[in-house]
Design brief:
There is one protein chain. The protein has 85 residues and is an alpha+beta fold. Helices cover 41% and strands 27% of the residues. It contains 3 helices and 4 strands, in the order E-H-E-E-H-E-H. It has helices at residues 16-29, 47-52, 70-84, and strands at residues 2-7, 32-37, 40-43, 60-66. Strands 1-4-2-3 form a 4-stranded antiparallel sheet, with helices on one face. A hairpin with a 2-residue loop joins strand 2 and strand 3 (40-43). Helix 1 runs antiparallel to helix 3 (70-84). The radius of gyration is 11 Å and the shape is globular. The mean pLDDT is 91.
C-alpha cells in the first residue's frame, strides 16, 4: 500500500472537470485507489463520490493506492494532482 498527501491549490477545489480526469487516471492504474478528505473516504473511480466530498482549496487529501504496480500508480497520480489540482 502506497499513499501520499496533497493540499488542493485549485481555486475552486476538486470540481467536475478534474474529478472526471481523476476517475479516468485512477481506473487506468488497475489498482484500488481511495481518496480521503474531510473525514470521508471514497473510491477514486466513482465520480459522484468524489464530487460529494466537497473538497475546497486548501484542503489536504490523502490518496491511497493498493494493488499491482502501486509504486508507479502512486507516482502517476501524484504527478496528476500537482499538474491539475
Amino acid at each position: 500500500m502506497k499513499s501520499f498527501k496533497y493540499v488542493i491549490t485549485d481555486e475552486v477545489g476538486i470540481h467536475a472537470r478534474p474529478a472526471g480526469i481523476l476517475v479516468k487516471e485512477a481506473k487506468a492504474t488497475g489498482a484500488k485507489v481511495t481518496l480521503e478528505a474531510n473525514g470521508k473516504t471514497v473510491d477514486a473511480t466513482k465520480l459522484m463520490a468524489i464530487m460529494g466530498m466537497g473538497v475546497k482549496k486548501g484542503t489536504e487529501v490523502t490518496v491511497t493506492v493498493e494493488g499491482a504496480d502501486e509504486d508507479a500508480a502512486a507516482e502517476k497520480l501524484e504527478a496528476f494532482f500537482k499538474a491539475n489540482l
